[in-house]
Each structure stands twice: as C-alpha cells, then as structure tokens.
Amino acid sequence: MSDSSNFINTDFAKIKKLEEKPHKYEQELQRTRNLQERLRALVTVIRNITEELYLEPLLWRIMDEVKRILKADRCTVFLLDEEKKELWSKVAHGIEGYEIRFPLSKGIAGYVAKTGEVLNISNCYQDPRFNPEIDRKTGYHTRNILCVPMRNKLGEVVGVFQVLNKLDGAFTDDDVEMLLLISTIAASQIENAQLYEEQRKTFNSLIETLASTIDARDPLTAGHSRRIMLYADEIAKLANFSIEEREILRTAALLHDIGKIGVRESILTKKSKLTPSEYEHIKSHVVYTRAILKKIHFSWKFRQVPQIASSHHEKMNGSGYPEGLKGDAIPVGGRILAIADLFDALTSKRHYADRMKFEKVVQILEQGADLEYDAELIEAFKRIPLDRLVLILEDENSQHLSQDDLHFLSHYTLNDLVQTLQNSNFPKDQLFVQTFMKYYFRQY
Q1: Can you name the residues that pair with 149 across neighbouring β-strands?
Q2: What element of type H or E holds 88?
Q3: pLDDT tens, 260-300?
Q4: Lateral strand order in the sheet of 100-103
Q5: Domains of the chain
Q6: Within 330-413, where are the H helices?
Q7: For the range 239-247, what are the long-range contacts, defined as Cβ-Cβ under 8 Å and sequence gap of 24 or more?
Q8: Dmax of the chain from CA atoms?
Q9: Is the pTM of this model over 0.85?
C-alpha cells in the first residue's frame, strides 16, 4: 500500500512538473519578447536623437521618444544652469512657447538634480518634495512622476528627465532602467548639441560683426544686413525651409553686401542720384562679394554661401546681374535675398529718398512678381505677421515699441494689410492699419 501510494504521489509530481513547464517557458518567452521590444525601442531612440545637432529640436525628439516608449502623458528634459543654480528647459509637453526656469531648491526635479537620486513617485500630492505650483497655473493634474538624473561622461549631473502620468498605472522598474539608459545616451548628445551651439554663436557673432562693419561705412544703411537676414529668415520659415537651410541663408544674408568694401566711398555715400557709370561701379559689389567669400573656408554645409550671397541682384526674367541668371537657375536663397533687399530698400531712409508710402511698396512688389521676383516667395513673404514686420522695420528702435500693440498686430499678416489697402470696400482706418502705420512712419 505504501509502495503504491508513493508511486502514485511520485507520478502526480512528475505530471505537475510537466504541466508547469509550458507555463514557465511561456513566461520566459514573454520576458524575452519584452526585452527584444525594449532593445528595439532603445535602438530607435539612439538612431533618432543622434541624427539631430540643434539643441531645441533635439530636446523635442528625446521627449517624444521617452513619452512613447514609457507610455506616459508628458515628458520634460531639464538642463542644469550651474552658474545660476537653476534648472531650465525651452521645451516641455503641454507648456509650449516659453522657457521654464526654477531654482534647484524646488520640486521633484530640483531634488533629483541636487541629490542624483532616482525618484519613482506613485502619488505626487502625498510627497512633500512635489511642487504643485505648475499644476495650479496650468490646470494639469500630476498623478505620478518618474524622475532620473542625466549625467555627463564625468558622472556629473547635467540635467533631469521628468516623465509624468503613466497611461496604464504606475511606472515600473523596467521603466526606470529604460529611462536611465536613455538619459546616458541623451546626455552625450545634448553636450554635443550645446558645444555645436556655442560654435555657432561664435561663428555668427563674427559674421554679424563683419556685416555691421560694412554697413557702418554709410550711417544711413546701418542695420541693413541684419534686417535683410531677419526678412530672409521669415520668408524661409514661411516657405517651410529646414533649420539647416535657414542657417545657411542667414549667413549668406549677413554677408551679401561684403563686396561693398571694394566700392568707392564717394559713390557709396553719394546723396544725389547716381550717374550710369557710377551705377555700373556700384553693381560690381556682387562680384567682389563672391570673390571675397570664395576665399573664406566655409564648412561643407555652408559651401553655397558665396553663390547665394552674390545672386541677390539676379532677376527671374534674366535682367539682373552679375550673370543674368533666369528662373530656377538663380539659387532659391538668392531669390529670397532679392525680395528682402528690395523691401528694405523701399522701406528705409536713403540719401535721396525717405521711407516710401506703403501702398507704393506693395505695388512695386506685386508688379515685380514672376517678372523679376519669385511670385511664390513673395506670397510667403506676405504671410509674415505684422508684429514681426514691425519688429524688423524698427529693429534699431525697439525701445519705442509697445508690447500691447505688437500682440494686437500678431493677429494680422502683411497679406491682411495689402488686401485692406487695395480693396476699396475695406475701410482704410481699421485699427490694425492705423497701428501698423504709426510705427511705419515712426509717429510714436
């Protein structure tokens, strides 16, 4: 009886083990699948964020990837300002449009930045370190937070990842591990982007100094190159140029008149109308521009700057100079500079003319569309908000601009102004027209 009982018990035990094996294998298989999924996600993150050199779009990419992988509602990457002992971010899900700054002594992110600890908080309002101020300001309700430090190669904390509101419960240990891995990769790329940004600032400051030196030869054209750069950038932005394309265009805009260094000062600053021979001499500045810029060692990315800068007097119908290029043979950046240069010439005080009536400026622009200037780019220019237009027109008189007026004008575009001025059915004394003209004719 005993032998039989032992046999039966042993048999049942074997059966039970056999029954458990499929379940055990299934668990292992699921764990393997989860691991593979996370590895694939990590590879995607690495590929996506290492493609971006510019800091702001890089931060957006990182945040979007973290939000997606951790299945969370929001993410913010805070960077450490060591000098001011603050955390800051230009970008945050749900709070777009302005920079966030707060001292290290505040909130969960501040605590993590100071201590280097990882915090996974399932109920924020029960944690005394949580700062509910932003929730009160925005109407958002933070349930849970995963916050990890971001360290550089020396192991120093350089920022903080803060992820809010897991969509399906609480953040897990796997989430913590994944975010720590991402933060290591992101820290390195953010450092690269910050270094690149510093190099860009140095390069741009040198270019701007060079441009202002050229403009300073004639006090009445002071600020011309900078305004051309600002107008050109607005057109490029409205024409959906990439960040990199806009950077190249801004550089070409600042340097477009560098060839005027070869123009005789007596002609450059002449107060009366130029003679035909004097006009031919001043036209040579674009040839000098190309010759000078070709001697500068530009990186591969900026190799088009000399061609773009020296083509700002070419015309769509081939009547321009120095090469008489037509249509698409003119670099698109040169076509943009041509519009910006014309607009600035018409709307700036000159030795022989004051700021032209705006209706006449618009008429000249529209008459030149397709014949001399790219019509599509003129249409893009006409989409510029009026507050931006005023800011550029009065770039050197910004202290006189009312923020309330600028906010009001931001609701209208140049095209709205054009239509109002050209359509006899529209009253010309509309408040936005009056406000714009007040600054255009400097009646402030």
Answers
A1: 160
A2: strand 86-89
A3: 988 888 888 887 888 999 989 999 999 999 999 999 888 88
A4: 100-103, 86-89, 72-81, 157-166, 145-151, 119-121
A5: 25-193 (3.30.450.40), 216-383 (1.10.3210.10), 385-444 (no CATH)
A6: 332-347, 358-368, 375-381, 386-393, 403-409
A7: 239/336, 239/376, 239/377, 239/380, 243/54, 243/57, 244/301, 245/333, 247/200
A8: 128
A9: no
